């Protein structure tokens, strides 16, 4: 992982931020700005979606990458803030390396597996992306309502276009690599009771990527979880409603025992 893939700001107890598919570490810029006054905030761009690595990865690889980032920063215990696939990875990390986590934040994420129908739908769209050709305008347009809520699409088209421009600059294989890391993951709902660290679930009411009912299912099974519903946002809630996310994060970490 290159230095440019990692942003490390502030001092104090550490929060590590892991982003979702089609995104990068900058999706957490509002949270870094808000929390680095009292906490060490570390955000990184996942290798799963970085085409120069060129290999298919799985969630265990993403867990290893996250721990490599923490180890490289000299951080033993941290709060993991995982968005979408970053949350999928965070659940694996919590189950397999519980001693490394002081807390877990699941943003726009879920614990159940994709259904056979969902896997087929994703495969039809994404399997052809295993190429160095740039992401097409058609593909980018199809994912706008998956990533952004209706309010953002209508009221802030410039913000949406900023991400579309980023997507169009990426090779298609980078998206394929991300997709392959999570499409066949195991259902973890039944094992959520094993996660004993404090957990915060943040989910937008208009999430077009992961319906909010899937987040509610996690909350019902996580023994020490708090659930925050965010109106007026889609999947990319950290940017669409940063104030609500920042408030929830700060309240959560300030209420934790020192780590």
Automatic annotation (TrEMBL):
InterPro entries: AB_hydrolase_1, AB_hydrolase_fold, AB_hydrolase_sf. GO terms for molecular function: catalytic activity. Pfam families: Abhydrolase_1. Residues 13-240 form the AB hydrolase-1 domain. This is 2-succinyl-6-hydroxy-2,4-cyclohexadiene-1-carboxylate synthase.
